[in-house]
Design goal:
The chain is built from 16 helices and 21 strands. The chain is an alpha+beta fold. The protein has three domains: 173 residues, Galactose-binding domain-like (Jelly Rolls); 211 residues, Rhopdopsin 7-helix transmembrane proteins (Up-down Bundle); 223 residues, PPM-type phosphatase domain (Phosphatase 2c, domain 1, 4-Layer Sandwich). Strands 1, 3, 4, 5, 7, 8 and 10 form a seven-stranded mixed beta sheet that branches. A hairpin with a 4-residue loop joins β17 and β18. The protein is elongated and about 140 Å long.
Length: 692
């Protein structure tokens, strides 16, 4: 399982499977409701490994009492627990690092009196093993004082001889002074024993060491060859940094393989934890440079971001070494970050159809098959060597990566040759392009000059349009008046005007031409001319009809003029509108709002439209608001229109305010609702408040 971390780089599912292998498929005690007496028969050792897989159901009692080793000791009230002592087990028992385990067996007469191998699958701590009350072996050095304990974690089998009898009891006095650390780091705190044929397992122990040493050295040598070759390729061509990252990645695989080798040969828990901590750091570094290598394949990945991840991996490794227990979560987080990043990189390259990715795909597929095979071997689903499966998978992955780099290097050389042939063609095209660019630059400057000229004309037109509007409203004692205008572009389409008659009457005009710009300005100028020509010769309805006919005859194509005329004489207002919003009247005495809505087509659209007018009587304190549609149709940040309700609320609270105060409040409403943005349409407001 020397590079199981690379399962993470393939899929999160593979990572979870490897994590399961890391804790060796531990079982928790609550899976077993009761203990059973197991039968040891020769037929159980007929499998290839010559092992009896005894069930992991032992009676357990926390604390220490030497009397518990007795054959006839009453253990009926003990808990049933897995000797693995995983985190799940510890959540349901009282465990302080020391306790007793007992298990009953019925041994076949054929095996009685013969040596049987006690196979130590795992063992974190020290223990004394008793058979029928007699101590038969001590693993490590047991002591109730944790400081005097010498732990044991060797795979050498121990001979055990069962005597004749119906039921025999195996008792284990166990202590793990490092259980807090081992539980957090390795996922379990206890031990697991199996039984097997003594001669077979005694011989297999030495054969295993020979095979493991020889196979591991061959594998390490192969990895070193790849690492050195690609480092030399980088040394001769430093611009190709992918070779450097791949060389470091393979070198770290060498370190990882060595750590697994040493982990198999450790004889104490302390050494196991020491090398296991080294191994977990090596896994982080392998993932770190695997990520950096995948980033270097695709040029679109930012080098700065990739280097930050390398620094992150190095920092996590340092922190994990010095503060292992405190930063276990950070190590897991780093693994997750690198897994996600590698998966993202691979998916991105597949999405972009990166050339040669199929080579990596084949290597990854072989590695994944080998990974699943090794997991099945570890769980005894199939037979075989997990070590060979892992070596074959990881070796195929490294070979695929090396082939990918070599292929990319060859393609890069061919591409350079092709580029050299294109240089001559491009140089000729460059000269032609420079000539075209100069022509475009001249055209650009001409367009800028034309735009500048048009802008100047628009500014002059705006100045002309504003000059046609009254500078201020007339001072009439009976009326307190104020006006406000804000245009959406340089030349707006809104218009307001007034004229006073000899009889003391006041005629007010407020209009809104369709659109903006120069045509709207022309329409406003024409409306102003008609207004002053007709204001003292006709009533409001006659003025609307004659102005509509005149504007229609101008034939300005889809340009129309909404207009509102109000003839004020004393407290009587005669109102006529053509395509304008309602006139809002606030009745001060009644504290109510009246909307005067007179429907009519804009001027210039239909010559003989039957426009209507309405006369109203006002009293002291009443307020009249004339406005263009730009105010009601003002948008906020969520594209909602202002409407008429908020405008009426301001008028309702206008008691004691002057016309100018009301204009200021409406202006503030415009800024608040629009968020300070420029309006999309012209806004014109005219307020008249009746005085004495």
């Amino acid at each position: 399982m020397c590079i199981r971390v690379f399962g993470i780089t393939i899929t999160l599912l593979g990572w979870l499977l490897l994590y399961a292998v890391n804790v060796y498929g531990q079982e928790s005690f609550f899976q077993y409701p009761e203990a059973m007496i197991e039968e040891i028969v020769p037929e159980a050792m007929q499998n290839e490994e010559r092992i009896i897989y005894i069930q992991d159901r032992w009676k357990f009692k926390s604390g220490d009492d030497p009397e518990r080793a007795r054959y006839d000791f009453d253990d009926t009230d003990w808990d049933i627990v897995s000797t693995n002592l995983t985190e799940a087990d510890l959540a349901f028992i009282d465990w302080n690092g020391i306790g007793w385990f007992r298990k009953d067996f019925v041994v076949s007469p054929e095996l009685a009196g013969k040596p049987i191998a006690l196979v130590i699958d795992r063992h974190l701590g020290a223990s004394e093993i008793y058979l029928n009350g007699e101590k038969i072996v001590e693993l490590g050095k047991f002591s109730i004082d944790p400081s005097l304990v010498e732990t044991y974690n060797s795979r050498h089998p121990v001979p055990i001889v069962f005597a004749n009898g119906d039921v025999q009891t195996l008792a284990v006095r166990f202590i793990n002074p490092d259980y807090v650390f081992t539980g957090r780091l390795m996922g379990y705190n206890g031990f697991r024993f199996l039984l097997g044929d003594w001669e077979t397992h005694n011989e297999q122990t030495y054969a295993f060491l020979a095979r493991w040493t020889g196979g591991n050295m061959f594998y390490v040598g192969l990895l070193l060859a790849f690492s050195i070759i690609h480092f030399l390729l980088f040394a001769f061509y430093p611009a190709e940094r992918r070779n450097l990252y791949f060389s470091i990645f393979v070198a770290l695989l060498v370190v990882l393989s060595y750590l697994y080798f040493r982990l198999e040969l450790t004889g104490t828990t302390i050494h196991t934890l020491y090398f296991f901590r080294f191994l977990m750091i090596a896994e982080i570094l392998v993932l770190t440079f695997a990520t950096r290598f995948t980033h270097s394949i695709e040029k679109e990945f930012a080098p700065f971001y990739a280097d930050i991840l390398v620094v992150f991996g190095l920092v996590v490794s340092i922190l994990f070494w010095h503060f292992t227990e405190r930063f276990l979560w950070l190590r897991d987080l780093a693994v997750l970050v690198f897994v996600v990043e590698i998966l993202r990189s691979v998916i991105f390259m597949l999405y972009r159809n990166r050339g040669g990715v199929w080579v990596l795909g084949v290597g990854i597929l072989i590695f994944l098959i080998a990974l699943i095979t090794s997991i099945m071997i570890n769980f005894s689903v199939i037979g075989g060597s997990a070590q060979l499966a892992n070596m074959a998978g990881s070796g195929s992955l490294v070979l695929a990566m090396s082939i990918f780099l070599s292929r990319d290097f060859a393609l890069m050389q061919r591409s350079l040759e092709s580029k050299l042939r294109e240089v001559q063609i491009l140089s000729d095209k460059t000269l032609e392009q420079e000539r075209i660019n100069k022509e475009r630059e001249i055209e650009k400057r001409l367009l800028e000059a034309e735009n500048e000229r048009k802008t100047k004309e628009l500014e002059e037109a705006r100045a002309l349009q504003l000059s046609m509007l009254p500078k201020k409203m007339p001072a009439i004692p009976r009326y307190d008046m104020a006006v406000f205008m804000e245009t959406a572009t340089e030349v707006g389409g809104d218009y307001y005007d007034y004229s006073t008659g000899k009889d003391g009457s006041l005629v007010i005009a407020l209009g809104d031409a369709t659109g903006h710009g120069m045509k709207a300005g022309i329409m406003v100028a024409a409306a102003k001319s008609y207004f002053h020509s007709l204001v003292h010769e006709a009533d409001c309805l006659t003025m609307l009809r004659r102005m509509s006919s005149g504007l229609h005859n101008m034939n300005m194509k889809l340009m129309y003029m909404g207009l509102m005329l109000v003839r004020c004489k004393g407290n009587t207002f005669d109102i006529a509108t053509a395509g304008m919003p309602p006139v809002i009247v606030y009745r001060n005495q009644k504290k109510k709002i009246d909307r005067i809505t007179l429907k009519g087509l804009p001027l210039g659209s239909h010559v003989e439209f039957p426009y209507k007018s309405k006369k109203i009587q006002l009293e002291k304190g009443d307020v009249v608001l004339l406005m263009s549609d730009g105010l009601m149709e003002l948008f906020d940040a969520n594209r909602e229109m202002l409407g008429i309700g908020k405008i009426e609320n301001i008028l309702k609270s206008s008691d004691g305010f002057s016309a100018n105060d009301i204009i200021q409040q409406l202006s503030q409403l415009i800024k608040t609702w629009s968020g300070g943005n420029e309006p999309e349409d012209d806004i014109t407001l005219l307020v008249i408040k009746i005085q004495e």
